[in-house]
Amino acid sequence: MVFLGIAAALVLGSLALVLAPLLRGSGRLARRASHDMQVFRDQLREIDADRARGILSAEEAEATRIEVSRRLLAAADAEGAEASAGPAPRGLSRAAALAALVLAGAGVGAAYLQLGAPGMPDQPLRERQAQIAAIEAERNDGAALIAQLQKVLEGRPDDLQGHRLLVTSLAGMGRMAEAVDAQRRVIEIQGEAVPGHELVSLAGLMIAAEGGRISPEAEAVLAAGLAKDPEDPSGRYFSGLLFIQNDQPERAYPIWSRLLEEGPPDAPWVKAIAPVIEELAAQAGLPPPGPARGPGPAEVEAAGAMPAGERQAMIEGMVDRLAGRLATEGGPPEDWAQLIRSLGVLGRAEEAGRIRDEAGDVFAGDPAALAQIAAAARDAGLAP
Q: What is the pTM of this model?
């Protein structure tokens, strides 16, 4: 209650200062105009005196006289306007001021009660300063440890684990640009044998350093990572993000919906995708995703009990249906890659090669999609 009383007094005092001119009326303005007129008249007399003493030339005196006369006329007009308008009725001015005072005070009070926290306990300055000091000390300790690690790595340039630790430490401190450089060193150490996830990590750091924007350079690194490991979940997540950035939700949705189905529920990409997948489906003009569907225990048992010929026929029927759907409706690169792999397993290499070539035409200009198609072709045993 003490706080609310002090706050109310401050608000009322501030409003009183703002509304004081309304209560005083316009008399002061009129007096100001009369004073200005007298000053300008005196200046006109001084111009004549300065001309007589030779201080001003004829041209200078005339120019100055014109300017002062203009100001005198302007002041006279202002005085006339004030005189013709007349002061507002004093009672009306006071009523308007009182209404403004009440309405503004009530509005401020209502806003505070809605948005503020009147019951919040006091936060002494000393405690807040101690908290800030603790945060600063932790940050300084982290910076000191990073500097120490960097110094150690100067003498151990090929220490892979040390450089990975440096990347993690820099990223944890929010020093993303430096983390990008450190991750580049991690990749250089591994050379041609670098796994795809290391390239995807570099792309992720580059994206973070750009505030979430996928630059052309980051896109190229991402494509290289997916070429090595098309199933990397982080890489696929960023691939979907790239399609969203390029206003292609219909390309992003199949990638993200599949990641959501695969899980696990606590994966960072699942946590990022789950809240927005329905909106993404709407943007893509597709129905929202339903629960993930898969064969139940009874179906699995029935398939296992099938004779080999029937089981083969069932698999080929599923593959043919997928091929027919892609031929008529199209689909994401993941579906094309799945079809190529399935045809390879079935020994239909010629057909798999034809599908690979067709997918190459469909996804021309999309490095990430082409990388998935190329990886599927390798898995199917197709020649490059």
A: 0.47
Q: What pLDDT, in 10s, does the model give residues 137-153?
A: 665 667 888 888 888 88
Q: Give the tens place of pLDDT for each residue, 231-271.
A: 899 999 999 999 999 999 988 888 998 888 887 888 888 88
Cα angle: 376, vertex 377, 382; to 5 degrees:
150
